[in-house]
Amino acid sequence: MDIESPDKLIELLDRHAYLADEGLATAVFLALKMGRPLFLEGEAGVGKTELAKTLAALLDAPLIRLQCYEGLDAAQALYDWDFARQLLHLKAAEAAGITDVSRLEGEIYDRRFLIARPLLKAVETQPSVLLVDEIDRADDEFEAFLLEVLSDFTISIPELGTVRATTPPVVVVTSNRTREVHDALKRRCLYHWLEHPSFDREVAILLRRLPDCTETLAAQVARAAARLRQADLVKPPGVAETLDWTEALLTLGAKELDPGLAAATLGAALKYREDVASVLGNGLLSHG
Amino acid sequence: MDELVATVTGFARTLRAAGVGADHERTGNMLRALDHLDVADRGEVYWAGRLTLCATPDDLPRYDRCFAAYFGGRKAALARTGTTSVTRHLAAEPEGEGGDDATAAPATASRAEVLRHRDVARLTEAERAEVHRMLAMLRTARARRLSRRFEGARRGVLDPRRTIRDALRKGDVARLRRKRHTTRPRTVVLFVDVSGSMAPYAETLLRFAHALVRSEPRATRVYSVGTRLTPITAELRHRDPGTALNEVSKAIPDWSGGTRLGEELREYLSRYSARGAIAVIASDGWERGDPALLGAQMARLARQAYRVIWVNPHKGYEDYQPLTGGMRAALPHIDDLVAGHSLAAFEQLGERLAHA
């Protein structure tokens, strides 16, 4: 697929129901052209993960996701051996009276006993989109390791040899910024800070994603969401939450947002008890 | 030199002067990005630079200012704000009653022992220097917690990888190998109040923070609080305490102001996380902001953190009562309220962090 400019990308992403602005489109454009990972930071729910999914659909490539968590290590990110099957094979060999160690070793460290985890899978699958989700949750040891893999997309397996990607996967790294990620990793990437969408864009997103939604309802929800983001909450609603909220309203057959309906469905937008209480208590839903 | 290269390098230099880490490698990335974009298009040049030269949301407003200034035709005169030293900030503070004792003899054991228990706010310059020397040598251990990683062990869960290796070597599955979780030091997040009322203690507290960072560089995070939240861990990583403190004093913009701990904790909690960490707040609790807000943020912090310790210099005195509004609001959410006025108190705090 030939993508000649950031504007073309805006159009292509739009076809897949993802509305990107100039900044994000340029970021994706450069990531594709320069073969560099895209490092996306921003509040939860601004559409970081969604972008990776859309990109996979757009490029018609499988999405390979590595969800990060504390203690994530190489065996869980790269590859692992299928020990149960290896043991069975050894037992079978023992029963058959085979004692040649080097032959046995060759047999059990065969590709068919190898389980590819996301990073190896991404290097082996071409083309592919690799999503390294919430890197801020992994620990610093893992960051250093990831930097190495992202630098040359080569994975060496001592028992088997080296696996190299002929075309590197498209990589999207996301962070909610609960922890500062090491600069060396960011330097490898293109860095983009994703903001909550503007009012107009959010209305457009709601209409694009939820065909049953009326313009009135979309505008009302987007306005309410913008107000909630101003309201100093523990977890302000992101686009994902506005979408959920609108969907909840549509399920109830709502044509317009009234305070009663809003209060009844608020749980789709707000995920903290204190937030729901403070919004209801301050009458934030009753005007507009 | 090519004109484009000169322009981009000059722009990167302007950014560095404004405090954005636009180093050599990043400048190269911007040039590579421009290969794919239209250099005559202001918007595309803006994004090429922003995507390659910036690394944190804090960089973005600085980037915007520099971009407007640099590509608006004139180069911005954006130098870092003048540096000030800790000593100057603290110069206005009351000196100890002993006067200057510049030719202090090396501490004898008993004198050191007396010094260890004295309130640092009431020491002479020389005595304080002595205490700071002892603080610089303070090495604290850290309580450990189980990590998700494994190491080989006699007892524990089955380790298939090593069992297979063994079996291969010996020819049959003779012995099952085992593994268990390793441990990691528990993270400490320390908030040091540098507002006016804490001025007599601020330097000593920062030196204590330096000792903590030096003891456990990867498991300590330090922020100064006052009227704004400033991360200072990187500055405290310098081996030499004097250099580290100098860097810290450059980084902190709000020395000796008031305290808005509630707002700052809220900022901390919305940006970072203290999950599983030991949170330590060093402050006298003279809150200028809304105590109710402080209470609510302390409740959030207490739910996230493994333990919340409040260090109050005044706790060292027997008649101390936590009566200030801030202290009263915070109290229900604190696990330990401890003293922080003397070397001995800091040593005890260090012990507590080792066994939390």
From TrEMBL, chain A:
| Entries under InterPro entries matching the protein | AAA+_ATPase (IPR003593), ATPase_dyneun-rel_AAA (IPR011704), CbbQ/NirQ/NorQ/GpvN (IPR050764), P-loop_NTPase (IPR027417)
- The residues covered by the AAA+ ATPase domain are 34-209
Report the superkingdom from the record: Bacteria
Which SMART domains does this one have? AAA
**Looking at the Swiss-Prot or TrEMBL record, what is one Pfam family this protein matches?**
AAA_5
| PANTHER family tied to this protein | MAGNESIUM-CHELATASE SUBUNIT CHLD, MOXR FAMILY PROTEIN
Q: What is this protein called?
A: MoxR family ATPase
Automatic annotation (TrEMBL), chain B:
Q: Which SUPFAM superfamilies match?
A: vWA-like (SSF53300)
Q: Organism's domain of life? A: Bacteria
Q: Tell me the InterPro entries matching this sequence.
A: UCP010256, Uncharacterised_CoxE, vWFA_dom_sf
* Short name of one Pfam family: VWA_CoxE
Q: What is this protein called?
A: VWA domain-containing protein
To which species is this protein native?
Nonomuraea helvata
